Amino acid sequence: METDYEQVLGDAETALDQVDAALGRLADGSYGVCATCGGGIPDERLASAPTTETCGQHTA
Ligand SMILES: [Zn+2]
């Protein structure tokens, strides 16, 4: 099957957007705070998913 580069690059662009958003949260001090409940996101979750916006209870 032929690789759909448009799809692959689209996915990469989405990942880049998520990194940009995470850097923005880091800059404004909201990094590591769950967007749903406002609670802290565990360090081990951030370590495995550094761009996540939610704690383990509120996975999107
Ligand atoms: Zn939460």
3D architecture notes:
- With 60 residues, this protein is mainly alpha-helical.
- It has a domain at 32-60.
- Helices cover 50% and strands 0% of the residues.
- It is built from two helices and no strands.
- The longest helix is centred in the first third of the chain and has 24 residues, at 5-28.
- It starts with a helix and ends in a 12-residue tail after the last helix.
- The relative contact order is 0.15.
- The model has no long low-confidence stretch (mean pLDDT 95).
- Bound molecules: zinc ion.
- Zinc ion binds at residues 34, 36-37, 39, 54-55, 57-58.
* Discrete helix count: 2
Q: Helix/strand/pairing class, anyone?
A: mainly alpha
Give the overall shape.
elongated
Q: Could you tell me which ligands this complex binds, including any ions or cofactors?
A: zinc ion
What is the helical fraction, as a range of percent?
40-55%
Describe the structure using short key phrases.
60 residues; mainly alpha; 2 helices; 50% helix; binds zinc ion
Please give the structural blueprint:
Layout: H1 5-28, H2 43-48
Structure at a glance:
The chain is mainly α. The protein is 50% helix and 0% strand.
